Structure formats: structure tokens, C-alpha cells
Automatic annotation (TrEMBL), chains A, B, C, D, E, F:
Belongs to the RNase PH family. It comes from Eiseniibacteriota bacterium. Homohexameric ring arranged as a trimer of dimers. This is Ribonuclease PH. One of its GO terms (biological process) is tRNA processing. Residues 17-142, 161-225 form the Exoribonuclease phosphorolytic domain. Phosphorolytic 3'-5' exoribonuclease that plays an important role in tRNA 3'-end maturation. Removes nucleotide residues following the 3'-CCA terminus of tRNAs; can also add nucleotides to the ends of RNA molecules by using nucleoside diphosphates as substrates, but this may not be physiologically important. Probably plays a role in initiation of 16S rRNA degradation (leading to ribosome degradation) during starvation. Keywords: Nucleotidyltransferase, RNA-binding, rRNA processing, Transferase, tRNA processing, tRNA-binding.
Length: 249, 249, 249, 249, 249, 249
């Protein structure tokens, strides 16, 4: 697939990601935190360790990772309602939780729970996939504190995880859709993969349109290429010094 | 892919559907209704026409199709709680709604809403895909009443829609997983397609496992073969006389 | 009271029940289940044993029987809202619970709870009384499994229970009102009794009308005659082989 | 039935009411209000006129009367939870509403709603029947203001309404049970009747016990005698001058 | 500050309280109760002892005092909605709780909770301050029962607490505003103080207006003078015999 | 009052503010937005214009300003629960709304509503006062867009508004308490004032302690001095160029 320069709103090629900025340790209280910017989309993520697990998991010697996702009222045009999670939010937070659990051996985590909170500060499409990519960084930080404190002896994390969207717009397959592209897309697919390039989750939908087996294959290939670049951004972020709360302003 | 007889709980081949029974017109009040049995899974579906559409759609001359999904308390082992839809239920009913809207030209439906209620009477895996397959039949019936009454002049339905699950269990790709197979699956994928074999929605997840591009292709192919058989069951059901409420007992 | 043939919508005599069909063991998961059809009214009932009792009963060596009642959205004309139980539903499920508890010695049940779920699939009047009549069959089945497994040594059930409605329409006392008769009734009375013909609960209301002591006596007498026939239907059902899930379609 | 002096907690005869005090116009804001004391049970009732009716009644030229019932936290031993109405409360307020609507020709009320709020200040059994008896007085007051202001030309009230409980305790039929008697009762019956002695509602329940046709007849007769005295108390209250807010302390 | 006679709705001087009536032991069930009338404002307060404390306080050997506040639907013009506490109610009940806790040494109370329920029967301004003034009396009564039963050995109450409102209306500082004055006030201040005249809480607000440091000083001084008189009313009430439930009517 | 250097956690004098950073236009969608940092406390504020007002204000030609306040789960130690606003949150958002309405002539705003959302990203005490100080900047920005678009002709804003906390810790009066100081404070007071130094709201509370008239005067004076500096920070922020979304990372 050639990366055409023309046609995309911000001049990107069809297979190009938006500008990615990724910071870690941006909050004082949670054990892990990250801030991600993908183009105009900004998501703040925290990972908090709780030394209690849900009742249904007790006594199995296993831990749990769960996620919550919400949009700040000012993150969208026309203000979103504050309060109970919508069906959309619940669907997204279940996806984020499943994706992050694929990066960790829950038995090695011990009987504790890590809650990953993803709050969208500014929304321009791709907020769920950005949440997963930054969520991995925050989770990695939280697990580090467990290792450093000696609470767990062996690193439970088995792989990195990232996510990206891909879609078909006017017959062309595009990577990392912004809001306007997403609104016009015939098919929209969110893909989660490990750092090794193995698929973890595929959610493709063509509301009002259909797509072929071959289309699905092409979209997945492009998404995997994009996630390879996200993996490198995660590695750079985790190797660089903590951003500190100062990065929030 | 060879259809192995051994290995499946009920002796099916890996590419075989469970026994499908599909009835229509099983309720007296709704304009459309259907009952589907896929193995032990039983779902009762009704389609009710409401001459009002949600506020955000008013004045556009378009209709809407929405779905609700719930499980009766006695449909599962240990009784499910009655009441507010869980995150899982909301995710499923959003999927059913999107799938069914792919079968219909909403502009031709006029400013009305069809609500498709899917209630699981007995659950043995595949309840969301069974809901879509039977939901199409109930929706088709409801639309027929609009055509017969002259409320709409032109048939808004553009295709049939069905759905099926496919998964990887012990390295083998299996069609139409029952509950026990689903519990042991490494990868679980729900696929929705049109009667013409075009993909409408793909949701594949490997909680605790990963899958390759090639695996995804093989799973989609097997799912499409299964849905071809479901399409024929839908056609037979819609051509046969109404079951009538008597069919419920 | 003569049983007049003329006058009733379906040609019944004033003291005749609608056609009753009653099946048991219609679901795979719950310990007890039943399906009842009284004319067009269809109710699916399950009885699930929970080895925990409410906190306020703990430590007394007694069990508890409780009921939940809901209508499927497609069971009525115009679709009923799904979700939280209405005031009407709560009133009905409290009635069903009280009625079924009258059939059982809670001390002999041991510290466990049986939840009887009544879901109306199709509604044509008399859904609360049909729920009680079928609820007894499901409860009886669930208790049998406790006896057969040796969980309890002595049968805690002391009597059978059934229920029926009776009402005054245009000055005439009618048994087992269908929806249309109920809508036109001057007085509506729901009566619960034991198999021995003793009264357990009487709820008579004349919204917009009144009735005399003598009317109340006549209505109760007719109701008791109707419940005698329901008792026989319950006995036949419990003696016949299990319907099996197949009966649902 | 002889009125035995011995045996009742407060020395009453079996057919005697507790001491009844009934005041009207005890609040400044609502159009009607009443305070009733039956023994230790104290209920404060207000009747507020709203010039809007529920959507489902609009355009029919008819009014509506509805009731709400709650217990103040301090009205019972151990404090009742404040907040959402329980199933019991909802059942009671539906009963109060039905009972009061039997006293009024809704067509003559015009398109307005009267809300009757019943708040139990101190509870010693019989709160629902006391609410109905005082509710009639408050409703009567509210309707008077409509007549006096000329909002309606013709008196819509067709009868007075009162209510009382009756029960079987240790084989004896007792009128107007206090809490302790109610706790020990084998059968508990709440009866609503018009001033002319016609029955409006009968709710008899024998949790854990049964009763005969003859018992039901005896209980109804005793209840009607009690309500005849309540009718006179209502008449005296409505003829006497307004108590004024001063009566509250 | 001169106390002008003219200008106030009821002819009071600017520094005069409304007529105060305060009764105790007005309910049978709670360990403490009080009824206060300040002009037309009537609040019924109960104090219930619970031998359990909130989880976050367990094991510290300390008790807790909390308050709930609500208005009966008929206490205001146009009827207030029953149900969940509004933001205003929550704010008020938090204030009442803080104020009452200032009167008691929680360590000496032992691990138990006293819940003070304040229900407004008739509202004419100043309901939150009246609730605090009567709340102290009910709390004092409940603590007395603990002392009398020997449940606690040492009196935990360290001071009395009362509260009053003060405001600026048309440039003049007025004590104890009734509803109509409150509606027209430029500044409204609620003040809580101990019997010794020390401030416990000050909440002054000038919606749509502002006030100076000097104004705040003058308002606080007048409030302290008013509370000195409330302290005396509390003392008289606590020394006089119990009103008994009879006082409610 | 001398500004002592010793004694405060961060070496500030008793009358010194923490380091204040204030940015505007930090979000793309809302008409106004601001980010404030006071020491470690970080609050993101947006102001959204809605061309509808609440029903109770319609037809009066006036506008409305309302506020919502919430803390992100990761803003505090131990993670705060997401979801419905707590009593504390509701109290705070009512305070913010009242404070901001004091800065604006609602009649000149026209029939529209401005919603000011305050979300705490990192909490170290003083979040409600920081919300008010930044809320004024966001509100000012939103009103500017109305003036620039010609939607309103005359500037409705009549003054600037800021807020700060002051308290007594170990007998010393301190300005702008951080979380640790706030936890140890004997008296805590939140003060809102206009740019001209007039008081708008005073909320002083001494949970477990009391304070004198003289203390209240000293605290108010110190708070007014602090707010004079906040006013200057607001002026500088509003005169400087927009920070742009880039400032968020």
C-alpha cells in the first residue's frame, strides 16, 4: 500500500500515524500514570494498585487488571454529560481491560487488582486505542513499583500491548483515523496487538457498509505496521526519565 | 479445513453448526417475532414498531432499528440477576442493533423505530449470534406488516443478515461454539455477514491468547460457510406458515 | 350459579376456566421449572435453589421462598419497558412469594433460599394467578431435587397452592378473566387457596365501583371451584414425565 | 360477636377501635391536610392540587387522584431507611390511591391532579388504613377549595371513604390491630368501604395460615362496623373548625 | 444596632427571634426526639442510636454522629418531590452533622453511631438552623439514655449547640429571617455556635450581592445574641418533663 | 501579620500563596477553558455555552451560569470512585456556581446557559477555590466569544471573582492551605471575593474546634490579601496569548 500524501485532512499519508507524544509519571498519587497525545486526541491515564481483588477471584492466588474510561465534558464539541458510564463507555472500558490483561501473567501478579483509569481530556478520534497504548505504559509503571518494593518477585508482564484504528474511507484504507475521517468511514476497525505483532483483539464494523475477507486482511496488515511504531514510542517513553506532574501544564 | 467428527462435545464436525430450529410469529402482540434454537440455546425475539423516533433523528425522514438483549434469570446455571443491563448486555445489544441496521435502508423505513427485543430463555453459548439470526426474521416480519398495511410503499430491506461464532480450541478452529467449548477457547470470534456473504462485523478476541493474521482469515472463512446455512434456514422459515403462539409450548 | 355459555368473548361459561396447559422441567439450569398456558396467557417459571439466605434470617435454621415477576417487552401490545420493576410488578411478586410460602414449612427447608422467577411471555390477563399456579409446580420440582439428593430428609411441602381471578362484569360473576374482560370488570378479585380449599389470600378491588358482602361471598365460592380444577392439573403435570426443553418450541 | 374486654393489649374489646383523633387544616401550604391518631399511630396527610395531569390522561377532560406513602425514619423502632420507596410502600400507596379515587367522579374534577401525601410520624400498626381515613379528609378539604374558588362548579365527591384492619389472633377476630397484635395475627385483612357501607377493596392474607369462607365473612362484617364509626369521626372533623398549624405541637 | 419595630413582616424588631416552641420526647421509638416551631417553621427531629459505626471508623474506639434532612412534600407551596436527597438537602445534612459533632467528644461516645433525622413538616425559612437547635435537644436525650443505661460511664457532651440565620435586607441587618425576608435578602448567613458563644460554623453568601468585612462582623454579633436566647430555650426544654407523643397533635 | 518562613511544609510564609500558574484556551472544543496549578493542585476547567436555559428560567430574558465539579480517580491517593457526584461534590459545585454568578449580569447574558466544568487532575488541597479562580478565566473567555460573534452586544461581566482558603493551624492563621495543612487545621475557611475586594461568600467551619469573632475577622483579612494577588494572576492570564492545547502536555 502506497502512502499517499494527498487526500488526508492533515496531509498525512494513508499509512501514517498522527504525531504521537507519550509521557509517564505525570501524576503524584497513582503508582503508574501516562499522558498520550495522538494528534489532537489527549488522554490521561492512571494505574492504581489495590490490595483487594473482586470476590469472585479470591483464594485463587491470581490478580486482576480492570479499566475505566470516561470523557471529560469539555473534551468534545457540545459538552458530554457527566455521570454514569454510557453503553459506549462500558464497551470501551471492557475492551481496554481485556487488552491490558493480555500483557500480564495474572498468577504472577498475586492477589491484587490494578485499576487503569483512562480520561479523555480532548477528543479527536481514536480515544480507545490511545487509551490502550498509554494504559500499557501506566500499567508497566505500576508493576515496576511492585517489583521495586519487593511485593512481587518476578516480573508478571509478558509483552507490551498497543492499539490503533484503521478504516476504509472512500475506498481507501487509512491508518489512525481522526474524528472527521472516522465520521466518513465506510468501515472502522480497532486492532490490538502485542509487541511481537500477534493479534489480541479485532473489532471491525461497517455500519451501513460491508467489507470483504480481503479488505479485512489489508486493514489488519496496515494496523500491525502502525502498532510497530507505537511499540517503539512506548519503549522510548519507558526508558526516558519521568515527566513529572509539571508536564501536565 | 477438514471437518473432524471426534473431539466435539456433541460429536459434531469442527465446521458443523448445531441443530437449528427457527420459528416465526410466535407471539400475539409484536408485529414480528421469532424463536430460535441452536442446540440448547433458546432465544425469543420480538420486533415492535413504534411510530416515534429518538429526538436526535427527528426531521430527517429516516427511521431507526434498535435492539435490547437480556437473559432470563433461569437461563443460566446459578440464576442471573434481573434488572439493569450489565456492561456485557449493553455491548451485545449495541452489536445486535448495528447488525440489523445493516439489512435495511433506514430512509425507506420512514420516521419510525423498530425495537428488537432478544430474551434468552436457555443459554448454551452463542446467544448474541442466535439473537441476530432470529432478529432478522422478526425484523423481516415487522417490515412485512408495514408493507401490507401500506404504511410504506417500497421494501426497505436490502439483504438478509445472520451471525455465528467461531473459535480456536486446542489449536483447532471450530464453528458455532457451545458454552463448554467457549469456556475453553483460546480465541473467540463473532462474525456477522449479509446473505451475499459480505462481512458486516467482526469481533475477535483472544483473552489470554493471541492469534495470527492467517488464523483470522481461516476463522472468517469458516464463519461465512456457517452463515450460508443460516441464511437458508432463515429463508425456509420466512416462506413457511406462521408458527403461531402455540409453538411456544 | 349457572354457567352461561353466551356472553363471554371465547364462548366459555361464566364459571369456566380457559384452556390450561401446564408443563414441567422445561429449562436445563434451574432445579425446577414450569410453563403454563391459560388461554393466550403464557408464563415461564423457574425455581432456583440458593444455599444462602437473606441476612435477617440467618442463624434461625429456617429457609425462605421469594419470587420475582416481570413481563417480557413483547408480551403486551405496545411493548413494555424493560428494566426496574414497576410498582405493579413489585406488588405482584410480593403476592406470589407470600402465596408460595404458604405451601411449605420453612423450618424443614433448612437455611437455603428458593427463588421463583416468573416471566410472562404472552399476556392476556391473569398473569399473576397463572404465575402462582405454575410457581407451585416449579417449587415442587426444586424441593424434589433436595429430597432426592438427601440435602433435606423430610418433605417440607405441606399443601399445594393455586390461584385464579374472578370478577364482576356487567353484573355477572365470571371466572378467570381474560384481558378484555378484566378491562371492563366492575370488580376484580384474585384468590389464592390451598389444595384443600382453604383461603390463603384474597385481593378484591372495585376501582370506580363497589361490591357487597354477598358479592364477595359468591366470588370466593366460584374461585374455589376453579382452583379445584387447577389443583388437578398440577397433580397431573407433576405425575407426568418431564416435558424437557423441547417443549419450549 | 361479643366484644371481649380481656385479651387485648390495651384492654379494648375485640370489636373496638383504638382512640381516634382526627384534625384538619394542620398545614399552611397544601390545599388540604389532616392529622390522624389511632392509638399510638400518627399519620400526617396533605392534599396538593396540581393543574397538570399525567400525559396518559391528557385530553380526556378527566382528573386524577394519586397517593404517596412513606414512614419517617423515627416512626419505627430501629429507624427506617430514608429514600426510595420500598416494595411495601409502593403497594400501600397504590392501595391508598385506588381507595381515594373511589370517592370522586374524576370527570367532574376537571383536568387536574390531586396528590395525597401520607407520612407516618409514629407507627403502631394500621398505618395504611389510617392514611386512607385521613386521606379522605384532606382530599375533601382540597376539593372544597376548588369549589369555593369556582374552579369547578359541581362537587365531584360522591361518597366518603374510610378503611380499617381486622384480623384473626389466636382464633379470635379482632378489629383495628395494633403492631403487636398484627405481628401475632394468623390472618390480616385490610378493608376499604364507602360511607354507605359498600366494599371498595378487600386485602386479606394469611401468611403461614389459612382461613375459611366463613371467617372472611365475619371479618368483613366487623370491619364494616368499625368503618361506620370512622365515618362519623370524619363527619365531625369536617364540620368542626380548622385545627390550624398550632395543632401540630 | 437598634431593633426597629417597623419594617418586618410580622412586626418583630430587626434583632428579634420569631416565637420559639421546643418540645422533647415527642416520639415513642427513637432514643431522643424533639419538635421545634420557629414562627411557622416546624421541624420534627429524632435521634436514633445504632450500635454499629461506619466501616472507616471501626477499631478506633470512637463514635460518630450523622444527620439526615428532608422536607415533607406538603411542607412547601407547590409540593416538593419525594425521594433522593437534592444537592441542597445533602449540603444541609452535612452542615447539621458537623454542627452536632461539635457538641460531643466522640471518643467518649464509644463505637456507636447516633443518626439525627430532621424532617421539615412546615417550612417558612430557617429550617436548617431550626434543625440544628432541635437536633441538639434530641441528641442530648439520646445520650442521656446511654448514660442512664450504663452503656457509657462519662457524659460525652461538652457543650450545647444552636444555630440561627441572619441577613441583610434593604441594607438592614435582620435576625432569624422568615421565607419572605430570605427571598428578598441581599446577604444570607447561617451561623452555628456553642452555648459559650464560640463560633462553630459560618456560612455567608451574597448571591448577586457582596458584603464588607464590617457587615460580616455585625451579622455575626447579632447572630450570637440570638443564639444566646436559643440556648436558654434548649435548657428550659431539657429541664421540663417530656412532652410525650400527645404533643404531636 | 508577619509572614513567618518557618513552620509551613514548603517553607512559605503564613500569608503566602503557593506558586500559581494559570493558562487559558487549553482545550479545542469549549468556548472557554483554563488550567490552574496552585502548588501541586491541578484543575482543568472548561466553559461551554448552551443556547438553552433550564425550564424554570425560560421566558424571563435572563441567562444562567452553572458549575460541575469532579475529581479524576487518579487525582488522589487510593483512587476516588468514579460516578455519581458525592454530597461533597454537589456542595462544591453549588458553591462554584454561586461564586461565578456573582461576576455576571445574567440579564445581559441573554437566554443561554454557560456550564463551567471543573475537573481536578491532581489534588493537594484548595481544589474548590482553585476551581473558582480558574473558572472565572474560562467564563471570561466564553463570554468574549459571545461578544466577538455579536451574540450579545454589551459585556455582562461586572467584576472578576477569585477564591482562596485560609485556616488556623496550631493557633496560627495560614493562607492557601495544602492538603496536609488542611488535615491538621482547627478551623478551615473558604472565601470568595470580587476583584474590588468585596466578599461574595464565606464558609468557615471548625470541626471539633471553635473560633472567635476576632479570629473570623483576621482570617477574612488575610484571605482578601491573597485574592488580590490572584486577581492580578487572572488579569495577566487574560491579557497573554492563548496557551493552546499544547500546554496540556
Amino acid at each position: 500500500m502506497g502512502e499517499r500524501i494527498d487526500g488526508r485532512i492533515d496531509g498525512r499519508g494513508s499509512g501514517a500515524l498522527r504525531k504521537v507524544r507519550l509521557y509517564r509519571s505525570v501524576l503524584r498519587h497513582p503508582q503508574g500514570s501516562a499522558l498520550i497525545e495522538m494528534g489532537h486526541t489527549v488522554v490521561l491515564v492512571s494505574a492504581t494498585i489495590e490490595e483487594q481483588i473482586p470476590p469472585w477471584l479470591r483464594g485463587q492466588g491470581k490478580g486482576w487488571v480492570t479499566a475505566e474510561y470516561d470523557m471529560l465534558p469539555g473534551s468534545v464539541s457540545g459538552r458530554s454529560q457527566r455521570g454514569k458510564p454510557s453503553g459506549r463507555s462500558q464497551e470501551i472500558q471492557r475492551l481496554i481491560g481485556r487488552a491490558l490483561r493480555a500483557s500480564i501473567d495474572l498468577a504472577k501478579l498475586g492477589e491484587r487488582r490494578i485499576v487503569v483509569d483512562c480520561d479523555v481530556l480532548d477528543a479527536d478520534g481514536g480515544t480507545r486505542t490511545a487509551s490502550i497504548t498509554a494504559g500499557y505504559v501506566a500499567l508497566r509503571e505500576a508493576v515496576r513499583t511492585l517489583l521495586e518494593s519487593g511485593a512481587i518477585a518476578e516480573d508478571p508482564m509478558t509483552t507490551s500491548i498497543s492499539a490503533v484504528s484503521v478504516g476504509m474511507v472512500d475506498g481507501e484504507i487509512l491508518l489512525d483515523l481522526c474524528y472527521e475521517e472516522d465520521s466518513r468511514a465506510d468501515v472502522d476497525m480497532n486492532v490490538v496487538a502485542t509487541g511481537a505483532g500477534d493479534l489480541v483483539e479485532v473489532q471491525g464494523t461497517g455500519e451501513g457498509n460491508t467489507f470483504s475477507l480481503k479488505d479485512s486482511q489489508s486493514m489488519l496488515k496496515l494496523a500491525l505496521r502502525g502498532m510497530d511504531r507505537l511499540r517503539r514510542a512506548q519503549e522510548r517513553c519507558l526508558e526516558s526519565p519521568a515527566a513529572g506532574p509539571r508536564r501536565l501544564i
